[in-house]
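tool_call: predict_structure(chain=1)
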Amino acid sequence: MTEVRVAIVAITRHGAAIASRLAPQIPEAEVIVSEKQAEYLGDFTNPRRIYQGALSAQIGGLFESYDQIIFLVSLGAVVRLIAPHLKSKDEDPGVLVIDDAAEFVIPVLSGHVGGANAYAEKVAALLKATPVLTTASDVGKTIPVDILGRELGWQVEAPKINITRVSADVVNQLLIAFVQESGSRDWWTRSTPLPTNIHLFERFEDVDASQYRSILWVTRRDIDPAVWQRLEERLVVYRPPLEQS
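tool_result:
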């Protein structure tokens, strides 16, 4: 698995101190501070980079070079700094903010697809802080339709409108049919039980589509275009790798 590229960015004395405490627990992280705050960094073996001038001039490079960017900067300032650089949730890195007292870790950008929500929970655990998640599927502890099975190598197959509509059905706790005909059974990774609105099936033919708002289908079958047309925007398909059962 490719190592996650992580930056910890601090612009205050308190931020430099928190970065010094966090960095040794994330060996892959590089610590980036302004020239004015460099003297407040502690002793750690992580690489460090000292920049001159305004932080705003660094953002483009950070977006290109890192997968997760942890800012020890106010949330409002981070929003203004990153706004000109946003492209899409499929391209933007994960962006997290830690407050100046290290009490809260807030995923700001690419929480789902970019992994910032999961990374925020990791960082919060390291700091004994509180992760502040706002993504509905994570708050509601339900299926993340757009990234389900990603760690297992599953590929999602559906138009974007389907993913959007089905995601809404899932978080709104409407009846969902989950059909698994192939792939690993270890796709439910949350500590909480599977929500009761998700009903499990082993064959697509066993599902009465009129009884379910949407269908999630894990399969290697070729799907007839007529099935997509009949289900309109209610179907999302996942393709597991061949080496899975």
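agent: The helical segments are 13-22, 59-65, 75-82, 116-127, 136-139, 160-171, 225-231. Proceeding to next step.
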